[in-house]
Amino acid sequence: MPTAFKIGTRGSKLALWQANWVRAQLEKANPDITVELVIIKTKGDKIQDVPLAKVGGKGLFVKEIEEALLDGRIDMAVHSMKDMPGEIPRGLCIGPVPAREMPGDVLISGNGQNLEELQKGMSIGTSSLRRAAQLLHLRPDIDIVPLRGNLDTRLRKLDEGQMDAIVLAAAGVRRLGLENRITEYLDPTRMLPAVAQGALCIEIRASDPETDTLVRVLNHPETRTVVLGERAFLRRLEGSCQIPVAGYGTLENGRFAIDGLVANLDGTVVLRENAAGPAEQSREIGVALAEKLLAMGADRILQELTAG
Fold first, then answer.
1. pLDDT at 307
2. Distance from CA of residue 260 to its chain's centroid?
3. What is the pTM of this model?
4. What was the pLDDT predicted at 46?
5. pLDDT at 150
6. Which of 170, 167, 139 is nearest to 155 (CA)?
7. Residues 6+ apart with CB under 8 A from 122
8. Same domain for 205 and 176
9. Cα–Cα distance between 52 and 49 in angstroms, integer?
10. How many domains are there within the chain?
11. What is the CA radius of gyration of the chain?
12. Contact criterion met (CB below 8 Å) for 13 and 23
């Protein structure tokens, strides 16, 4: 077993928190090893003034890190699982999936008002088409303002009054210890999260048994079962940053249940369904849910969005 390993990560405060957490867990379980962080700038980090949907697909925040993993500059990569494309490059694989943080979204408003209390014409900042569509479905009288940047940048823009509220992933806010900024937790029954939101992805080379053995200590079997079911749902829909798709699975008493959603951009059409079955069939259940939504008309929505 090698004694030194390199983790590839983005350089944002949240990405570094995630990578440092993985490093600490690995060094705690294996006191004889050292783990180094290698910061890699991705296309999504470099282009900050264009909405995500116009920059490209879901690989925006992972492609350059995956290239470093493939050519051996790093031994593993730590990503937010929600940033991962449905298809993984040949030669790489998703390794262990650690226990998931809170998967939902939160609203942070400048004046302490929750979503229902925001006045007509007020603005909410988000970079996510998924969030925008669901927000407009719930509150068609509000304005959506494109919002890019890391978590600190988004909070600063809110504090400067560039918008009245913002919506963020609860996981990132909690991991950075900023729970005191949260105005409202948006329950998944109202705002369905992104697929695998709140989960980490440990990506490794498919033919690297030493790293595979090392990182297995991080795996949380229940989270992995749920996340793989959600990702199978996304992959069947060929979801990307250009399509408002949401999916959230749960595991209870050996049964996997998943809610899924496809919407048009302005939230006037929101298709939502669910599916459930044995936990060991989570991926098949995710695909079955995607088929349900496609049969309900999601195929037409997806065709219109990808054509546009």
1. 73
2. 15
3. 0.91
4. 63
5. 86
6. 167
7. 142, 143, 164, 165
8. no
9. 9
10. 3
11. 19
12. no
User: Would you say residue 272 lies in a domain?
Assistant: yes
Residue 51: predicted pLDDT: 57
Q: Which amino acid is at 14?
A: L
Which residue in this structure is represented by tokens 């440990």? Answer: 202
Neighbours of 95 (CB within 10 A): 22
Residues with Cβ within 8 Å of 254's Cβ and at least 6 positions away in sequence, in order, are 278, 279
Given the DSSP bridges, would you call strands 255-263 and 245-252 parallel, antiparallel or unpaired? antiparallel
Does 227 lie in the same domain as 298?
yes
Residue 117 CB contacts under 8 Å (≥ 6 apart), including other chains: none
State residue 300 phi and psi, 5-degree precision. Answer: -70, -40
User: Identity (one letter) of the amino acid at 150?
Assistant: N
What's the token pair of residue 79?
Answer: 């990503």
Task: Quote the pLDDT of residue 48.
Answer: 59
Instruction: State residue 45's pLDDT score.
Output: 66
Q: What is the CATH number of the domain that holds 307?
A: 3.30.160.40
Catalytic residue among 75, 83, 105, 208: 83
Active site residue 83: yes
Q: Can you tell me whether residue 138 is helix, strand or coil?
A: helix
Range of the domain at 158: 105-186
pLDDT of residue 54: 57
Pair (292, 263) in one structural domain: yes
Could you say which residues of the chain have pLDDT below 50?
Answer: none
Query: With contact defined as beta carbons under 8 Å apart, do 167 and 184 qualify?
Result: no
Structure tokens at 35: 């783990």
Q: What is the pLDDT of residues 250-274, one digit of tens each?
A: 999 999 999 999 999 999 999 999 9
Residues 91 and 2 in one domain: yes
Residue 185 gets the label, from left (phi > 0), alpha (psi -120 to 50) or beta, of beta
Kindly tell me the sign of the dihedral angle through the C-alpha atoms of 56, 57, 62, 65. negative
Side-chain-facing half-sphere of 242: CA atoms under 13 Å: 15
pLDDT score recorded for residue 305? 83
Contacts of 65 (CB under 8 A, 6+ apart): 8, 9, 10, 40, 42, 74, 77, 79, 203
User: Is 38 among the domain residues?
Assistant: yes
* Token pair recorded at residue 192: 């369905």
